[in-house]
Design the sequence.
């Protein structure tokens, strides 16, 4: 097939700052935010905020703004790294100091369709190295392998200190799913003649697909794209969650990401149930001892094996300012 | 460009005759609530917070809706200023738009969802 489809695999950027202002990044004006997003070539579709953070659903993925942390996750052919210069400028204007930067992504389904600097991981690393300030002295870039050479997890991390900025009691989980069950993926298509708003149709998809039941405590902002596709951000106290779906057969993809404690394994099971994917990768950001890393990996296996998913590979690496990143891949028995 | 020209109404900071009424005290809210119950108009309560970016992002669209729907009452409540009222209406995520008629809630939109809010107002104002 010569024509590439929509690239579901996201690029993810996480920046941590320090500063005295308890509102920090939340002071960014909408114009400034939009300017940052213009560089990336995406726009705000819907937004909500609570006492802890602001969550934006974008035309191509999501943005989470905490006072001292920003997470920007974009898919398609967006140029995520181009957001960095203006982000750093605005943060500096607000009196914030950059403490760490983490950039990560899986392997693109259509790598040739990506624009510079996303043409290769080395291009991305060079771009990042050139644009991050020298105060981020500790840097590491690594491609974490799986058993299939086409699928790896790419991580770049730069930090002012070696120790992680993650809270010890919580971990970040990023789940990438491909080969989605066809009939389940079809639920993410708009129906012909449905003229409701994307928010309305999105809310219905959230309920009908069971996504709303993953964490009933969370306020979910779902959005249904034309002619297909779905994005949601969830807000539960200071914890974000996000799901993005590219349902097209042949290159179907869905991602789930959230921050949390032990309940995250429960969410993982429910998410796999929603999509019944043929292949899954689970990436976790863990802080703590080697014990924790092994415990986390076993917990993921225990969660997915009963659902018919076999672990094909496992890898773990330490990154400055990001703790230990574990990467496990699974495939469904039926394949 | 003369200095005497004023900016178009949509961009003025806090206009005295803004179509969105900002309520700053419990007394003002009680009075307003009483007069709402006596009218048959739809009222949209916009719960906002000064620290909430999404609230700022949708503010111009709310002003535009208030101008468009002259038969609907728009009020704005800051959740820190009137935290009791926010709690009473169970507002935790913002912006939250609570639509009330005859003293009861008839609809709610949570999040800066412009199109959804516009559609709900158009449906419920009759």
Sequence:
């Amino acid at each position: 097939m010569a024509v590439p489809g929509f690239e579901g695999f996201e690029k993810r950027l996480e920046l941590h700052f320090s500063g005295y202002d308890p509102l920090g990044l939340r002071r960014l004006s909408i114009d400034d935010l939009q300017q940052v997003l213009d560089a990336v070539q995406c726009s705000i579709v819907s937004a909500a905020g609570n006492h802890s953070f602001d969550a934006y659903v974008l035309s191509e993925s999501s943005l989470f703004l905490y006072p001292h942390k920003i997470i920007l996750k974009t898919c398609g052919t967006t140029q995520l790294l181009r957001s960095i210069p203006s982000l750093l400028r605005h943060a500096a204007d607000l009196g914030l100091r950059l403490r760490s930067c983490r950039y990560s992504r899986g392997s693109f389904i259509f790598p040739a369709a990506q624009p510079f600097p996303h043409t290769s991981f080395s291009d991305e690393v060079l771009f990042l190295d050139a644009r991050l300030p020298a105060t981020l002295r500790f840097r590491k870039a690594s491609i974490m392998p799986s058993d299939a050479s086409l699928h790896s997890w790419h991580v770049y991390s730069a930090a002012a200190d070696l120790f992680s900025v993650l809270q010890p009691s919580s971990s970040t989980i990023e789940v990438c799913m491909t080969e989605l069950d066809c009939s389940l993926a079809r639920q993410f298509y708009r129906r012909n003649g449905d003229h409701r708003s994307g928010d309305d149709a999105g809310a219905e998809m959230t309920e009908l697909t069971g996504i709303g039941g993953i964490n009933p405590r969370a306020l979910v902002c779902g959005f249904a794209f034309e002619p297909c596709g779905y994005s949601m951000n969830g807000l539960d106290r200071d914890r974000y969650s996000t799901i993005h779906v590219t349902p097209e057969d042949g290159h179907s993809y869905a991602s789930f990401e959230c921050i949390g404690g032990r309940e995250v394994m429960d969410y993982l099971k429910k998410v796999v149930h929603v999509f019944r994917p043929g292949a899954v990768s689970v990436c976790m950001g863990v802080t703590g001892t080697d014990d924790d890393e092994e415990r986390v990996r076993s917990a993921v296996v225990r969660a997915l094996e009963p659902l018919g998913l076999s672990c094909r590979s496992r890898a773990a690496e330490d990154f400055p300012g990001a703790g230990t990143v574990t990467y496990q891949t699974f495939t469904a028995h039926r394949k | 460009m003369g200095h005497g020209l004023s900016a178009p109404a949509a961009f003025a900071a806090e206009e005295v005759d803004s179509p969105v009424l900002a309520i700053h005290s419990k007394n003002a809210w009680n009075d307003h609530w009483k007069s709402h119950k006596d009218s048959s108009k739809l009222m949209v309560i916009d719960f906002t917070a000064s620290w909430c970016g999404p609230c700022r992002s949708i503010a111009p669209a709310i002003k535009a809706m208030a101008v468009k729907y002259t038969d609907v009452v728009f009020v704005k409540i800051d959740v820190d200023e009137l935290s009791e009222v926010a709690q009473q209406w169970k507002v935790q995520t913002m912006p939250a738009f609570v639509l009330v008629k005859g003293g009861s809630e008839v609809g709610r939109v949570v999040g800066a969802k412009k199109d959804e809010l516009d559609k709900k107002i158009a449906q419920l104002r009759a």
About this structure: Residues 50 and 56 of chain B are 8 Å apart (CA to CA). Strands of chain B lie at 20-23, 42-48, 72-78, 96-101, 104-110.
